[in-house]
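hey can u run this one w/ fe (ii) ion bound, need the structure tokens asap thx
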Amino acid sequence: MKIAHISDLHLSAVDEVVAAIENKIAAINTAGVEHLIITGDLTQKGEETEFQLFLEILKRHNFDSSERLTVIPGNHDLFGFFFRNFQIPKDFYGSFHKLPQTALQVHKYSKKNYEDDLRSFNSIFNGVLDRVIKLSSGEIGGFPFIKVLSEQVALVALESNGLLPQLNKNAICSNGYINPVSADKIMAHETLKNKIKIVLMHHHLVPESEVTKRNGKWFSETMKLVNRQEISEIFKKHDVDLVLHGHYHYQEEYFLEDGVVKVVNNGDKNFWSLIDVSNGKIETTSTFKNPIGQQVDSQSLSERRLENF
Ligand SMILES: [Fe+2]
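ok here u go:
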């Protein structure tokens, strides 16, 4: 089975941005991909018009059914009130005059707002949630859930935007948290027995020390999954085969500290990964097309990674 993973396309109503997304989804369809996974930040500002544009593109390339598509939200999709005021990082400092008003909104954002925002995300993508398996106890906004793709493979979708906007801990709405109790519970679900388990989440699992080295302390402190270690332990305990995420705008493959659980980050919007599952085995290949549409080789890929810094 051929699965594709993309993330963080940040659709805005700018013609070139929309065209680039359309080209990417078309290329994925042409490559014979059977199921597309998008791990959040589909939109820049979580606006209805942005979601509708994205849905139209997905529909044009037949990625609009539960068999063909799985999506989870990113912080830009849920906390649109913040990203409508700030264009991080380009306009971050230029937007400081809006800070008091936005800070007040951050301060007032409640659990109820979060639940409503999650529900409205899921209602937009209601058509791709057919036959998903949830915990009997239920969870905020329909997460986490399992989607069985075939006899061999199942997806486990986690919601990692669970740290509410707060002035002291999450002022720019980019830190995350996953409920460890429900994550542990859903991964023990009997449906997952003897299946290849692919976990989807928005936030990244790169250790803070590494992110600090690359991007500085402020960035690392405002972009992290606050219970990264706890969640990593749960993934190891349940023998997760692959974790897919975005959020950190970088393309890379890495392993959790155990050296066994593989993680793929497709936060760089120029990339996508092909995940091939056959005969009980899983293989990942990352693909990059440069702006004139030529495939680049792995040597150029590593050069590009360096350019990202
Ligand atoms: Fe994000």
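DSSP finds eleven helices and twelve strands in the chain. anyway lmk if its weird
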